[in-house]
Amino acid sequence: xxxxxxxxxxxxxxxxxxxxxHVDLEVxxxxxxxxxxxxxxxxxxxxxxxxxxVRADAGSLNVMGHDVQLDYRAARRxxxxxxxxxxxxxxxxxxxxxxxQSGYFGIRDNDNWIDEILENLGLTSKANANMRMLSGGxxxxxxxxxALVHRPPVIVxxxxxxxVDVELRQTLWxxxxxxxxxxxxxxxxxxxxxxxxxxxxxxxxxxxxxVVALDTTAQLLRRFSTHCLRMRTDGAMxxxxxxxxxxxxxxxxxxxxxxxxxxxxxxxxxAAGCRIDDLEIGKPDLEEVFVRVMQGQxxxxxx
Amino acid sequence: xxxxxSTLFYKEVLRFxxxxxxxxxxxxxxxxxxxxxxxxxxxGHVQVHGVVYTxxxxxxxVMMSVLQNxxxxxxxxxxxxxxTGNIVFVLLPPISYLEFYLAYVLASVVRGLVVGAxxxxxxxxxxxxxxxxxxxxxxxxxxxxAILGSLGVIAGIWADKFDQLAAFQNxxxxxxxxxxxxxxxxxxxxxxxxxxxxxxxxxxxxxxxxHGFFGVSDASPWLSLAVVGSCLAVLTVFTLNLLKRGYKLRx
Lengths: 303, 251
Prior knowledge:
By secondary structure, chain A is an alpha/beta fold. Chain A is 37% helix and 28% strand. In chain A, strands 6-7-8-3-9-10 form a six-stranded mixed beta sheet, sandwiched between helices. A four-stranded antiparallel beta sheet of chain A has the order 2-1-4-5. In chain A, strands 12-13-11-14 form a four-stranded antiparallel beta sheet, with no helix packed on it.
């Protein structure tokens, strides 16, 4: 069975800017995949190339085995894209927009599915409102709905929660999770790393048009981030602990791998005569992974 | 042609129909004003091909309206979609470049014909009109609308901003339509300008269209058909090639 998305040696330049540099990436069917990277890393260009909005200079992109250039009709039918920009057609109502979008994909009589999408995205009461009358958050929901009218097995969301309130974020993720559980492949770009950590089972990190990390979320966290004991003490830290610790304000951060190391650490601190004023345990998080991966690449390039 | 094509065509027609006072009403009123002013000033002084001036003027105004509105429809729809970004809605679906072209051009022809019919109706009682050879009327209205609709697609794709589109319209479309014998027979021009007019394809569209009403014209309708048909063929191939390459639409 062909992969949901297969990207092979894709490069793209805009003038002298190398937006994508020999990108290889494969997303399997049913995955919830995260595409992360700083602004300008090439995430949107990669998605645009996949959607046929941008033509790659070299390499090939496939959606479920269909080349996005040579077999664009099949590829586009299998792909639903939520663009990053908040765009809408001011001439039409929500329902008209969705019916028209269905028609573009060759689908007639799509009302039942449209109703279901509207319901799931909390848009039912706005179905007959003109697009101009909607708030930004509501327009964002319609954009998601438009990407889903043709029931695409592969769904790509380009920063769907940028500038979006908590309620929509929760509604949206609940819906997207249900779609994923029903077998849809999801690809997501976001700047909210917590979201990616909670949702994605695998993550690629992009920097300056290159894939600089690609692994399961769990592996990335294990490789680049650790548990950490953070505390404020009234005295000095024992030397053997201070060696590995970072100090920030009155706070010490002591990394550890397994929880059975915690008690001996605390015992040593007590033995040194320190009183602990405040204490918390930090779990590995994707933000730390992200920062390390991005910095690591810098050093690599300098050297 | 699939359902994608018919939906895009329907959407393009719906788009202008939803703002019909701007897209149909206003151009009909403009044509009516031209008719009132020019016929008031010139009727009684001028006869062309033995036809009273007001009657001569009406088909010219109808065809000018068809042409200008066909151009306006595809060009303004595309530039608006590009500037607002909602062009992605038609670029993401599996719509072929041929379907894309035909949908935009046919919707432009529909807009041109609706406005042209409106002008014809509004001017009907100003002067008696014949319909001597009506098939020419239909043929030239359709082909002229399609040519300007294609030019509108080209302009809408090429322009990045509204002022670039306005330049295309003001420096190319307006001179071509005004220097084409809408308001006069080119035979009444000095020889030099007669020559210039014969290089203007819009002249043949209007001349052929008018032939359908009066059965007489400056040029043979068959020559006009050849010129207009060739223009349409060349523009269609050119525009399809732009769309196929994804010029300015798919970077």
